[in-house]
Design a protein that fits this description.
- With about 350 residues, the protein is of the alpha/beta class.
- The chain folds into two domains: about 200 residues, Quinone Oxidoreductase, Chain A, domain 1, CATH 3.90.180; about 140 residues, 3-Layer(aba) Sandwich (Rossmann fold).
- The protein contains ten helices and 18 strands.
- Helix 4 packs across helix 5 and helix 7 runs parallel beside helix 8.
- The longest helix is centred in the middle third of the chain and has 13 residues.
């Protein structure tokens, strides 16, 4: 079978031929329908994140069950499923509560999940180590559903935690209208009555944000002007919840400068920025959170939102052979929504 492989840090991904895997006891073989192309993959390719290659990339995956190993019950060949991405130990307290994204034993596990240390879904087939990591798709197209396992789950997790603050008189700022940001806008529309401001440096992405229901859009190329415009919209209360899906220093500083008291500053993006603390900056009562992915039950909730038609990933579909080109387009900011590779 064909697969897109991470070899080592600093090298581009390679497209190679591998033997089709066979599921062992307790494992599931998945025939891949689609694998999302995430900006996090660029960090894996470019930075030393402690992941040893080679392994197959792709941590946003959906497809059909193609076979099961001994001891696997309740699933049959042909069932359409999404794969829960962060693989924990499955035994600790947080894993038992479905929050494998916060596994207590993460430091002793040699992989973060499929496509993140273990073989992922940018291939024709993928081994899922346990059926607990599968979520039924309830009629969704697996190609369209693949990005939901990260691009929707990660903002859903962040927004769900902030819901008590997102009242009708609140203003929420979404910075970075890419794969995660465009899903965050839809999730906010589905779950909250708050006023939504979308911010980005790309006017095309801001136009997309308007189509997705953002009340206001702000271009942030001029950081000072953007901060003044955002503050004028938010008023004396300031931004109640800021969701930074970029995480670079300019966006972190922007969010810290516009949130009000009793607010929430959530940094999701991996852009290398640092939240600087001084008295009343961020303001008193501001919670600073660094969420990671989401829980298995939250993925079920995301799938339910999508199945009801309230959220939908905007996808650009490419063949597996185009993976290197797609990663370059992602580097250049030329992907609108989420790219999905199909075998």
């Amino acid at each position: 079978m064909k697969a897109v492989r991470f070899v080592e840090t600093g090298r581009p991904p390679e497209i190679v031929e591998l033997a089709t895997p066979t599921p062992g006891p307790g494992q599931v073989l998945l025939k891949i329908a689609g694998a999302g192309v995430c900006h996090s993959d660029l960090h894996v390719l470019d930075e030393d994140m402690g992941m040893k290659g080679p392994f197959t990339l792709g941590h946003e995956n959906a497809g059909w069950i193609a076979g099961v190993g001994g001891g696997v019950d309740g699933w049959k060949e042909g069932d359409p499923v999404a794969v829960y991405g962060p693989w924990g130990c499955g035994r600790c307290r947080t894993c038992q509560s479905s929050a494998e994204n916060y596994c207590e034993n993460h430091a002793s596990i040699p992989t973060f999940g499929g496509g993140l240390g273990s073989d992922g879904g940018m291939a024709e087939y993928m081994i899922v180590p346990s059926p607990r990591l599968l979520v039924p798709l309830h009629g969704l197209d697996p190609v369209q559903a693949a990005p939901l396992s990260d691009a929707a789950l990660t903002p859903y997790h962040a927004i769900k935690a902030a819901l008590p603050l997102l009242t009708p008189d609140a203003t929420v700022l979404v910075v970075g209208i890419g794969g995660l940001g465009h899903m965050a806008l839809q999730i906010l529309q589905a779950l909250t009555p708050a006023t939504v401001i979308a911010a980005d440096i790309d006017d095309e992405k801001l136009a997309h944000a308007k189509q997705l229901g953002a009340r206001h859009t702000i271009n942030t190329r001029d950081g000072q002007a953007a901060a003044e415009a955002i503050s004028a919209i938010a008023g004396a209360r300031g931004i109640t919840v800021a969701l930074d899906f970029v995480g670079a220093q300019p966006t972190v500083d922007l969010c810290a400068g516009v949130v009000g008291r009793n607010s929430r500053l959530t940094v999701v993006g991996l852009g290398g920025g640092t939240v600087q603390y001084a008295a009343n900056r961020p303001p008193y009562g501001c919670q600073v959170t660094i969420p990671y992915w989401g829980s298995r039950t939250e993925l079920m909730e995301v799938i339910a939102l999508a199945a009801s038609g309230r959220i939908r990933a905007h996808t650009e579909v490419f063949k597996l052979d185009q993976a290197v080109e797609v990663y370059q387009r992602l580097r250049e900011g030329k992907i609108n929504g989420r790219a999905v590779l199909v075998p």
